[in-house]
Amino acid sequence: MPKHEKNDVELIRTWTLSPAATLGSAVRAKGILQELQSRVPAASKRSLALDGSDIVLAMPASDKAVFNAAAAVVAKAMEDVETLPVIPREIEDILTIKPGERRRWLADGRLPSAGTRTVRLNGRARRITFHVFDPKVVEDLLDRGAVDEWREQDAEAKAENRRKAAYTAKLTRSLKKGKTIKAESIEGSDEGSRTGLVGWEEFGRDGLLR
């Protein structure tokens, strides 16, 4: 076979992501690919791709040494790929929740954090820190339908808060109205004060109005 034809022959190796690894999420599968790409040598990064639920490493036959090095890294990482922390965009896709729900449930403790992770944005000096989640915990939340339960709890709490706010507003209006009535009663009991006449009390005691 001519030399140039040999160079066209690709070296290929495939690893299949298990359901326990992806948790049924294409976003999670892509996140795993990106994690694997960050671990292989920079020259091999673009040779690693995602095909459905398969991680595929493909290189020209002439890059056998580089291929073997990258394959060894990926094979090692695949041993514990199911334990990789779940990042925010992944958990939102897995549980079908909104960013606001994730932040609220994280803040009140219903969504337990497995720690934080700091990364640098591509092409930027700025770093961001975010919470990550234990895949086993996420799987449990998914299996028992915890999100539906939490949404129902939130709806009930919201309705209760509205009732309390309405009651507080009504009570405030009643107190203000009561103060006005009391003030008018006090003013009405003092005829002198109401009329502004000096000596009105003495005038009444002398019986001059009888």
Q: What does this protein look like?
A:
By secondary structure, the chain is of the alpha+beta class. It has helices at 3-8, 19-22, 26-39, 64-78, 88-95, 99-107, 135-143, 146-189, 191-195, 200-205, and strands at 10-16, 48-51, 54-60, 116-120, 127-131. Among the domains are: 1-84; 85-144, no CATH class. The protein has 10 helices and 5 strands, in the order αβααββαααββαααα. A hairpin with a 2-residue loop joins strand 2 and strand 3 (54-60). The longest helix has 44 residues, at 146-189. The model is unreliable at 1-6 (pLDDT under 50). It comes from Rhizobium hidalgonense. This is Mlr2029 protein.
Mean pLDDT score? 85
Q: What's the order of the H and E elements?
A: HEHHEEHHHEEHHHH
Shape: elongated
Strand order of the largest sheet: 1-3-2
Distance between the termini: 137 Å
Task: Provide the structure class.
Answer: alpha+beta
Instruction: State the helical fraction.
Output: 55-70%
Proportion in β-strands? 5-15%
What is the gyration radius calculated from CA atoms? 36 Å
Q: What does the main sheet amount to?
A: 3 strands, antiparallel
Low-confidence stretches: 1-6
The number of distinct β-strands equals 5
**What is the count of DSSP helices, taking H or I runs of 4+ residues?**
10
Protein name: Mlr2029 protein
Organism: Rhizobium hidalgonense
